[in-house]
Write a structure and sequence with these properties.
Layout lengths: L1 H10 L7 H8 L3 H13 L3 E5 L3 E6 L6 H5 L11 E4 L5 H10 L7 E4 L21 E7 L8 H20 L4 E3 L3 E6 L2 E15 L2 E11 L10 H4 L5 H4 L8 H20 L3 H11 L6 E6 L2 E10 L5 E5 L2 E5 L3 E4 L2
Parallel strand pairs: 3-4
Antiparallel strand pairs: 1-2, 4-5, 5-9, 6-7, 7-8, 8-9, 10-11, 10-14, 11-12, 12-13
Helix pairs in contact: 2-3, 6-9, 6-10
The chain binds biotin.
């Protein structure tokens, strides 16, 4: 309902719309409209009211409220339900709880900040308030657990495509889950993907694909240990201009839905081929950490199953997971 009220105010940009007309259009009472207007104001929307003329939207806050995300969103299946938080421990944790209690595919959990944002391998994810994008999507593909990794790769392609379309920036992918930008021959981390799942031995119950993107973080805002390795979309802009988070998130969701539908239609071969276009590892010497084990080798390809194939001591190894470090 709040989405609809905001939608009407937006359509009417520059002129007033009476509470009565809004109520008629939405099939609710004028009091219900008034309540939604008060709630929007509390969130920081500047809405003026004139007894005679009705309401006019003067400006919007830089928040990723569901009403904002849904206005003009092209995706249909994803985002039918959005859970929005100004602060949460981790969107992935919340999405897992929702998924366990039966939330449908496409449910989105979104936050302005995370107090315990999670990275891969037990690391934490830097999540300053209102500066970036942190969200998790519930998926329920009918696939074997071994396929789970494919959704991390698919999400990488979708996010890279969305960033290209929205900001014009070329993002590259470091297998399996890093979004990076190339800077004077080195790689700076722009974002990451964390897919978690619940499965039986032969079937995925649900997947939660969590995505974090550094959007409007200034270089000096990164904690010292990330400063030389991390970057943001704003920091990559020639004029250091901020990026509209809502627009970017809308495009990411649209691309995610596009690639996910293609996956369901059996188009994996082409998706992984697109992933290869973004890849930075092929031909490089790497060190892969898998728990206590270390593998050194030269990357040959991302194979058709999304594994990293590397030549190591005259053997070809196909790795499904691990932490990859580029060697000089
Ligand atoms: C990584 O590169 O290590 C993965 C980072 C994933 C971060 C995102 S932010 C939204 C979602 N919620 C989390 O707690 N983590 C993921």
């Amino acid at each position: 309902m709040q989405d609809d009220v905001l939608g009407l105010l937006r359509k009417q940009t520059g002129s007033y719309m009476s509470g009565e007309e809004m109520a008629r259009k939405l099939g609710v009472s004028r009091i219900a409209i008034w309540k939604q207007i008060q709630s929007l104001k509390r969130h920081g929307y500047d809405i003026s009211a004139l007894k005679k003329n009705g309401y006019i939207l003067r400006s919007s806050p830089d928040l990723m409220l569901p009403a904002e995300i849904k206005t003009g969103l092209k995706a249909k299946m994803f985002c039918a339900k959005i859970h929005y938080f100004t602060s949460i421990d981790s969107t992935n944790n919340y999405a897992k709880k929702l998924a366990q209690s039966g939330a449908p595919e496409g449910t989105l959990v979104l936050a302005e900040t995370q107090t315990q944002g999670k990275g891969r391998l037990g690391r934490s994810w830097f999540s300053p308030v209102g500066r970036s994008i942190y969200f998790s999507l519930i998926l329920r593909p009918d696939v074997l657990p071994a396929y789970a990794q494919r959704f991390t790769l698919l999400a990488g392609v979708a996010v890279a495509a969305a960033i290209k379309k929205t900001c014009g920036l070329t993002v590259r992918l470091k297998w399996p889950n890093d979004l990076v930008v190339v800077n004077k021959g080195s790689y700076l981390k722009l974002g990451g993907i964390l897919t978690e799942m619940a499965a039986e031995s032969d079937r995925v119950n649900y997947l939660v694909t969590g995505i974090g993107i550094n959007v409007n973080i200034d270089k000096n805002e990164f904690p010292a240990d990330l400063r030389s390795r991390g970057t943001s979309l704003k920091a990559q802009d020639t004029h250091n201009l901020p990026v509209a988070r809502v627009k970017l998130l809308q495009q990411i969701i649209t691309e995610m839905e596009h690639y996910y539908k293609r996956f369901l239609k059996g188009d994996w071969e082409n998706i992984i081929s697109e992933y290869r276009d973004f890849d930075i590892l092929v031909g490089k010497t790497v060190r892969i950490k898998q728990g206590e084990d270390i593998i050194n080798g030269k990357v040959m390809e991302i194979d058709s199953e999304g594994r990293l194939a590397l030549r190591s001591k005259n053997q070809v190894l196909r790795v499904i997971a691990g932490e990859v470090t580029l060697q000089k």
